[in-house]
Design goal:
This protein is an alpha+beta fold and 352 residues long. The protein has helices spanning 6-12, 105-115, 120-129, 136-144, 191-199, 213-222, 232-250, 278-283, 311-342, and strands at 16-24, 27-34, 39-40, 47-48, 51-64, 67-79, 89-91, 156-163, 170-176, 182-187, 206-209, 227-230, 257-258, 261-262. Among the domains are: 1-101, no CATH class; 103-147; 156-236, Ribonuclease H-like superfamily/Ribonuclease H (Nucleotidyltransferase, domain 5). Helices cover 32% and strands 24% of the residues. The protein is flat and about 95 Å long. The structure holds zinc ion (ZN).
């Protein structure tokens, strides 16, 4: 009989097999086994089916029912079969996490999505309440090195220039044309750093780029055999530019229309005195005197500042604290409730 974790299995695709799910010290653990029988060496690109060993990786995933959730995956190490490769043994790649990552791509994305609207410290606390264990420092680190996964064997790339928000600093961004994953971010728009990068990626045969001729000459120089194309955005941008030029050339600078008719010549200028309603002017009169109360006395401007030693502020702080404790308590209660459910007999199905 087919039973177990078919729904969960679907989330992992065909390359991994879900063996079971259980609760371990308040954490939900999904046991997964990789079914890959071969993989590509990250250094030379040679496919190897020679298994060296297996080992277990623990990778934190997005929480299930607000409980800290970890994927414990049994992965392979392969021997590189290319005698000329400097890598002898390599770890197989997973679709849900990078080579040395302890978090799934989805979890990283979730943390960044929260942290972009609040500070990293607040994000860490909020995510903690939702079942995600991630420190303030880790979020800062993720931001600092926004996962650029270089691939020296990449064949199809896109190159574009981007600037920071103020438009003062420019970068050259290089991405995988098929997956749109970022490969590198080079400072500036100069060709020297791009040439250096291209020299380390000699398998590139297709380059999508913008119109900047500097990029074009760099690609032609280092990779004369590579095909250069303009991506869709820049193609449309180019086309609109040409259409604009054609329309501009065909139309006069100014077109005069009067009563629905296009005039051959500009209309005669008619001098007229501007008519302004005098009541409008009197209404605009600016009075700099302070506002007056019902008793005829001036109303003083009072600056109400938040005084943290005031009884009102203290009461609010107390109430906030009490609310926070309540939330923490309810999370604990919630987790205990689910623990029993998860501790039911675990289905341990090993692929045969
Ligand atoms: Zn290799």
């Amino acid at each position: 009989m087919e039973y177990g974790y078919s729904g969960l299995q679907r989330l992992f695709g065909g390359a991994s097999h879900v063996c079971g799910m259980r609760n371990e010290q308040g954490r939900t653990i999904i046991d997964v086994m990789s079914l890959k029988t071969e993989d590509k060496c990250p250094s030379c690109g040679e496919i190897s089916a020679s298994i060296h060993s297996t080992y277990t990786r623990e990778i934190q995933d997005t929480p299930i029912r607000n409980t800290e959730t970890w994927i414990r995956v049994l992965v392979h190490k392969f021997n590189c079969v290319n005698p000329g490769c400097e890598v002898k043994v390599f770890t197989e790649s997973l679709i849900f996490a990078g080579q040395n990552q302890v978090r799934t791509h989805e979890l990283t994305l979730m943390a960044l999505a929260v942290a972009r609207t609040v500070g990293n410290e607040t994000a860490s606390q909020s995510l903690g309440a939702l079942g995600i264990k991630i420190s303030n420092d880790t979020i800062t680190r993720i931001y600092a090195g926004l996962d650029f996964e270089d691939d020296p064997l990449i064949e199809e790339i896109g190159i574009d220039d981007v600037s920071n928000r103020k438009g003062q600093t420019y970068f050259t961004v290089i991405y995988d044309l098929n997956t749109h994953r970022l490969l590198a971010l080079l400072e500036g728009r100069d060709v020297d750093s791009l040439k250096k990068w291209l020299r380390g990626h000699m398998k590139v045969r297709l380059v999508a780029r913008d119109r900047a001729s500097a990029y074009a000459s760099a690609v032609s120089e280092i990779l004369p055999g590579a095909v250069q194309v303009a991506d869709r955005f820049h193609l449309i941008d180019n086309m609109l530019g040409y259409v604009k030029d054609i329309v501009k050339a065909a139309l006069p600078n100014k077109i005069f229309i009067s009563g629905g008719e296009v005039l051959e010549n500009p209309p005669e200028k008619v001098a007229s005195a501007p008519a302004v309603d005098p009541s409008l002017l009197s209404r605009m009169h600016y009075d700099n005197s302070p506002p007056v109360g019902e008793d005829g006395a001036d109303i003083e401007f009072e600056s109400v500042s938040s005084d943290i030693s005031s009884p009102q502020y203290k009461a609010q702080a107390e109430s906030r604290k009490a609310k926070q404790q309540l939330v923490e308590l309810s999370i604990l209660v919630d987790q205990n409730k689910h623990k029993d459910a998860l501790n039911q007999p675990v289905v341990n199905r090993i692929a045969k």
